[in-house]
Design a protein that fits this description.
Blueprint (H helix, E strand, L loop, with lengths): L14 H13 L6 E3 L3 E6 L3 H17 L4 E7 L2 E7 L5 H16 L5
Antiparallel strand pairs: 1-2, 2-4, 3-4
């Protein structure tokens, strides 16, 4: 679980479950994850109230244990857009998250 940072306050036993939630979310991406500069990712998800609700709940819980993440969720008729941002010190975590997202979307093995 390379993308779970040391600063995470989520109990160790719960971390694999959270990673699995993100894997499930990333697998629904309708286009590849895009890197936005060094410190950001743009995730394109399906449209719909269920997607927005699921993502909103997940990122709220993630922000509670990894406060360095910043999430911006936008919904439209065309899709649900999630921006993930980290400070420069979190770039390695974002790199690992992007690799995880790419693998989940491809349906392949996770790094």
């Amino acid at each position: 679980m390379a993308w779970v940072p040391e600063a995470c306050t989520l109990p160790t036993a719960e971390q694999p479950l959270r990673v699995a939630e993100f894997d499930e979310l990333f697998a629904t991406a309708v286009r590849p994850v895009e890197r936005v500069g060094l410190t950001g990712l743009h995730v394109h998800l399906p449209a719909g109230d269920a997607t927005v609700s699921t993502v909103r709940h997940l990122v709220a819980r993630e922000t509670a244990c990894c406060s360095f993440f910043a999430f911006d969720l936008r919904a439209s008729a065309a899709g649900t857009e999630l921006e993930v941002r980290v400070p420069p010190s979190g770039v390695a975590v974002l790199d690992a998250m992007q690799q995880r997202a790419d693998a989940a979307r491809a349906g392949g093995a996770h790094p």
